[in-house]
Amino acid sequence: MRRKTFDKIVTFVGFGLSVFLLVLSGLLNWGATFAQDSVKSQLENQNISFPAAEAMPPATKDQLAKWSKMQVTTGEMARDYADLYIWEHMKGAAKAGIGKEATYSEVSGMYMGAAKGGTATPEEIAKLGDLRQTLFMGNTLRGLLLEAYAFGTLGNIAAIAALASLVGGILLLLLSIAGIVHIRRTPEEATI
């Protein structure tokens, strides 16, 4: 095979890959921007804010202090609010209500058993019903916030991939240009 023919093929493939990577970079950047803007706007609309440091749960106060009095606007903040603030309150509510930490499904089962079993007093049933409602709302809000965290994380990953694609596309473009220069310098009779 003639060297010039091989160089032309490699250069053409390099140009094609560089165009592909540059287009991919643009699409990934668009996706990253969309994800990050969506998370921010949706969380801002919820108007959720961390309390002052002294009002945070004692078990997670040190981890949450960095967010003191700030509005939740990022995926990382949403995760911390869900896992370190709401979850601690849910555990505390269950402990206060039934004397131990329990999940929504456990308390719901206890409530259903008490309501249908007829052995609990109306006050006990009402107390379990209130706790069940509190844990349900806590789980719902946690799920929504953790969804924002996941979407924000995907946006961050897309931003990193966009940058890597951009660098790769530029590098391949430069190498392809170098290939064109090399083709011009290669003698016609050269072979591989």
Which descriptors would you attach to this protein?
membrane; transmembrane helix; elongated; transmembrane
Shape: elongated
Cα-based radius of gyration, to the nearest Å: 29 Å
- The amount of helix comes to over 70%
Rounded mean pLDDT is 94
Topology pattern, helix = H, strand = E? HHHHH
Transmembrane segments: 149-175
Keywords: Membrane, Transmembrane, Transmembrane helix
SSE arrangement:
Blueprint: H1 3-46, H2 61-64, H3 75-98, H4 104-117, H5 122-185
Notes on the protein architecture:
- With 192 residues, the chain is mainly α.
- The chain has one domain (3-185).
- Helices cover 78% and strands 0% of the residues.
- It is built from 5 helices and no strands.
- The chain is elongated, with a radius of gyration of 29 Å.
- The model has no long low-confidence stretch (mean pLDDT 94).
- Keywords: Membrane, Transmembrane, Transmembrane helix.
- The chain crosses the membrane at residues 149-175.
